[in-house]
Amino acid sequence: MHLVYADEAGNVFDHPEWSALGRSGDMITEIWEDELIPLPEGATMVSLPNTRAIGWNEAAEAMQPLDGPYTAVGALLPQGFTRLLLPGYVKRDKSQMLPLFGYTAVVWKDGKFYVAARQSDDPEPWNPRNCDTRELGIGVERLLQTYPDNRLYQHLSKCALEYECLTASNTFLSRLEGAVPVSFSCNAGCYGCISEQPDDSGFPAPQTRMNFKPTVDEIVQIMLEHLRTPESIISFGQGCEGEPSTQAKLILDAIRRVREQTDLGYININTNAGLTDHIRAIVDAGLDLMRVSTISALDDHYNAYYKPRGYSVANVEKSLTYASNKGVYTSINYLVFPGVTDREEEIEAMLGFAKRTGLRLIQLRNLNIDPEGYLKLIPQPKGDVYGMKRMIEIFEAELPDVIIGSYTHIPPQKTAR
């Protein structure tokens, strides 16, 4: 399997003599055949700016950075695929942060590109090619004309057309999981927040956070437009907003008004679940699905990344347990990173967390982050590192009633309360 690299113009090459290497945490490592799959449809090949690719020089019998005006190359995976290794690279300037993407190791093998990844879900529903830009434009124009004063539709039109957010696009295409952001504030200061970064963070936020408080009418309009089929999902908590449960009153009023008019579809919240009292109220109002974002079940790791304000992992666990006990289909949006998530202590903590909270689904999400900045932020490993492939196999064996996937699933049927 050959090393892949790019020149300054973005042209991609494979090295005829050097073998590709991957990275787990801060360790450069060999890539095994059973860790590779063909480059998935919808994946994007990108260069890693300000880096040098590291490969195995067979002639020198050593791993070496590639000389010359070249950079390392990684793949950005579509929904449904979990990264097993990062690209092998070293930074030319350690003070420079990489853009917030989830870079995956790429190799050239048998005449085509392969990636160190695993398919964790069916990628077809979230394949970008299924989002027809012409149809999307028609949907945006129709709903903006129907609701000319609805600021949420105006906000989401930018998310769909400029940022190419598929959840926002779904809102205008009336399909799958649609978005209804509600909050400009947050009770966490996530290191990798994609909608708000402090000026001295070293990397810009790739999206713009909403800057207004919507009305209940604006929220209800979007919810009723989307919840027109039994399979439809409308979701509070998007990448363009803060923590939705900080606007619990808005959500409560909207859910109650919507459920007075229709029982179709599913109402979901994507949340950090730190505001337990707020989450309980939202659950009791008629929530169907809850997806909780987490990076760890260990306090020191969780706190280092999320920087929670007035809550802890214990609050998150209480929220999830309450929702599960009330019949809500619960899942976690598990931000995973090779060399960290697959640490022995992380695996043990997450297994216990999943069993105690009654989780139904673990959504594996590749963490979009600068690796050096992240590794510097979090605790050092305390035990063995098992590897991402082995970690997933352990989850499957130890949690037989939990789905290991990549995005929100519709429950087999609505649970009566």
UniProtKB/TrEMBL annotation:
Cofactor(s) demanded: [4Fe-4S] cluster
Keyword Phosphoprotein in annotation: no
Keyword Membrane: no
Pfam families: Radical_SAM
Domain Radical SAM core: 181-347
Segments crossing the lipid bilayer: none
Keywords in alphabetical order: 4Fe-4S, Iron, Iron-sulfur, Metal-binding, S-adenosyl-L-methionine
The protein's name: Radical SAM protein
Origin species: Paenibacillus hodogayensis
Lineage of the organism: Bacteria, Bacillati, Bacillota, Bacilli, Bacillales
